[in-house]
Specification:
Elements (H helix, E strand, L loop, with lengths): L4 E2 L8 E13 L10 E16 L5 E5 L7 E5 L6 H4 L5 H16 L5 E7 L9 H16 L2 E2 L2 H16 L5 H8 L2 E7 L2 E7 L6 E7 L5 H14 L1 H23 L3 H18 L4 H12 L4 E5 L5 E7 L2 H13 L3 E5 L7 E5 L1
Parallel strand pairs: 4-6
Antiparallel strand pairs: 1-7, 2-3, 2-14, 3-6, 3-8, 4-5, 8-9, 10-12, 10-13, 11-12
The chain binds (R)-mevalonate (MEV).
Family: Belongs to the GHMP kinase family. Mevalonate kinase subfamily.
Subcellular location: Cytoplasm
Organism: Candidatus Marsarchaeota G2 archaeon ECH_B_2
Amino acid sequence: METLKAIGVGVIHVRVSASAPGKITLFGEHAVVYGKPAIVMAINRRIRVELSRRNDGRLVIDLPDISVKGVRLTVNLAGGSSMEALDSGSAASYALQALKLASEKFGGDLGLDVKIESSMPVGAGLGTSAALSVATLAAYAALQGFEPTREALAKMGREVEVAVQGSSSGMDAAAVAYGGAILYRHVKGDAQIERLSFGERIILAVGYTERVLPTSESVKLVSKIFSKHNSTVIRVLDAIGELVLEARRALETDDIKGVGELMNINHGLLYALGVSTPRVEQIVQVARGAGALGSKLTGGGMGGSVVCICPDNNTLESVVSAIRIAGYTAFGVTEDRYGVMLEGKS
Ligand code: MEV
C-alpha cells in the first residue's frame, strides 16, 4: 500500500472541503463480492463535504440535500451511544464512521461542523455512500495536514463501508477515489485495480426508482441464495465473471452493440440472483423500447438505478424522456476523470 503523505507538515487547517464522484457499475456487481472482476466508472455527479473546526467539542452534521430536508444532527461522541443512535446505512452513519476512522489515523478531535451536499439521489446504487465516505476521509486528512494517496483513501473507504454495512468488495470506494473507469477485483483481501479508457466514447442514461432494500441487505439476499443453491449460483457468478472480460474487450474495441448485448445478459443474471424488482424491470424494458442498445440494474439492486447504453445523443434523449414518462427519475451521465478532490482549505 502506498503510504500516507504529509502535506505542509504542521499546517493544520480550520476549514476544508472535498468532493468525490458517484459511480455506475457497468458490469459485475454482486459477483465482485465473490472475487469476480467488475467494470465500474465514476460519473459527473458529486458529493461535497465541508468540515470546519468548532471550539465547543461538538460534532454537528448538516444534511441539507440528503434524506429529510434541513436535518441537523448533533452527536455527543463522549456519550458513546451516538453511532448506534443513527439508522445503520443512513448517510450520516457513513460520515460519522469515516470521521471516526480518520481521527484514529490522522489524530485530532471531532469538534466539527460537517456540511454535506449531493448532486445525485442518495442510496440509489450510484455509490453515494462510498463518495461520502471517501470525501469525508480526504477532507479530515487535509484538515490535519495530510493528503493520503487514492489507494489509501480507497482502502479506508472500504473499511468505512464494512463497518457500516457489514461487508463490501471495496469496488465503489476504489471507483470514487480513482475516478475514470476501472476493472476492479478483490481477492483474498487484496484489491486489484486496472484503469480502462473508453469512458468518453460511451453514451449512458440512468433511470432511478426508490430502493426497497439497501445494498447491505441485497448482498445478504445473494449470500442466502448462494448458500442454498450453491453449485447453480456458482455457475451464475462464473458467467458474470466471464461476461465482464468479454465486455472489457467490447468496450475497448468500441463494439457498442456488443456492450449492450452483454449488459442485457448481465441484467438477466442479476435477475436470476433475485436482486431486481418490478419497477427496475419496467425501467429496463422502457429504455430498450426507446432505443437503448442495452440496459441493466446497476449497484446493489432491489430498486435503485438502471444504466442504459445508447447509440447516439438523440437516442439518449428519447431514453431519458421515455423513463420520465413512465414515472421515474432519469438523466444522462458522463465519465468523471478526477475522482476524489480537495476543493478548498483555509
Ligand atoms: C454495490 O454498489 C455493489 C455490490 O457489488 C456490493 C459490493 O461490491 O460490495 C452489490
